[in-house]
């Protein structure tokens, strides 16, 4: 199975409560239901769509900078950071365990925690989001790789100058591509519109978003349909969210895959009231 429930560990918190506490508790459980040890097969199949095209002249070379929101300790990060045509990967997650786990599992990337002067000393553009001196707001860096530990909205709401402080070379603030395999399905559904708008603001003109969602297509109850994370989001809603944005050139459906292919998976999800579960893969392209 490519994307499973957030965790099998019991919890009294919901994602509508304190988001850091919710995910910290998930990470402390015995099973990380969302984590996969292998590189995502959709990413392997479509990596070329994340790279800059022959016609793209934003830089003199064909290197690509990629943003991976709510990345966890995914093997996809190491795959992207090691790709010869990808110059820099920036991952972000709210829990420190994700960065430490990834660094431990990928010594070939030489990842270390770094101290950035005045890294989070200013407020963001939103009164609801600030990047203060919280204990868990820190940065790890390695070969072609930066891992930020903070709320993704804090980062997205920063000014371009503030974002530059978090980048590996401090000179760029926009990304050529965004790889979203587990981010939009993890945030609160009420935040989706803001999330989509902000992603467009950190993406270069002509850039792409490679997006993987899940669709709880058939459920026993409406509650099972609404449950999460991961939250269900079907093709219709994806098109409504992105095609309504002035910066979007196109939304292309690449793949639709049945995610319940074994008896074990079907039984586990049926206990949660889900009878049919699909992964849907999209490519969103920003206007030049």
From TrEMBL:
Signal peptide: none
Coiled-coil ranges from the UniProt annotation: none
BP terms from Gene Ontology: methylation
Pfam families: TPMT
GO MF annotations in UniProt: methyltransferase activity
UniProt entry tagged with the keyword Chloroplast: no
Keywords tagged on the record: Methyltransferase, S-adenosyl-L-methionine, Transferase
Protein name: Thiopurine S-methyltransferase
């Amino acid at each position: 199975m490519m994307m499973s429930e957030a965790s099998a560990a019991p919890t009294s918190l919901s994602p509508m409560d304190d988001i850091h506490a919710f995910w910290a508790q998930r990470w402390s459980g015995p099973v990380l239901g969302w984590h996969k040890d292998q590189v995502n097969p959709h990413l392997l199949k479509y990596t070329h769509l994340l790279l800059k095209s022959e016609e793209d002249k934003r830089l003199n070379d064909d290197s690509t900078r990629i943003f991976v929101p709510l990345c966890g300790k995914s093997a996809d990060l190491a795959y992207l950071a090691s790709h010869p045509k990808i110059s820099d990967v920036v991952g972000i997650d709210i829990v420190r365990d994700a960065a430490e786990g990834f660094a431990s599992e990928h010594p070939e990337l030489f990842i270390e925690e770094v101290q950035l002067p005045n890294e989070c000393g200013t407020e963001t553009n939103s009164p609801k989001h600030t990047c203060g001196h919280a204990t868990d707001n820190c940065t790890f860096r390695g070969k072609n790789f930066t891992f930020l530990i903070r709320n993704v909205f804090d980062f997205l709401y920063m000014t371009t100058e503030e974002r530059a402080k978090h980048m590996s070379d401090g000179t760029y603030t926009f990304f050529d591509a965004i790889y979203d395999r587990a981010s939009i399905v993890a945030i609160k559904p009420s935040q989706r519109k803001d999330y989509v708008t902000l992603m467009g603001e950190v993406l270069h003109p002509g850039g792409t978003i490679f997006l993987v969602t899940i669709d709880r297509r058939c459920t026993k109850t409406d509650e099972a349909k609404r449950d999460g994370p991961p939250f269900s989001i079907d093709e219709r809603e994806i098109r409504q969210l992105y095609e309504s944005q002035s910066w979007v050139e196109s939304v292309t459906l690449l793949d639709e895959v049945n995610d319940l292919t074994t008896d074990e998976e079907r039984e586990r999800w049926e206990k949660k009231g889900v009878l049919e579960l699909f992964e849907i893969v999209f490519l969103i392209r920003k206007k030049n």
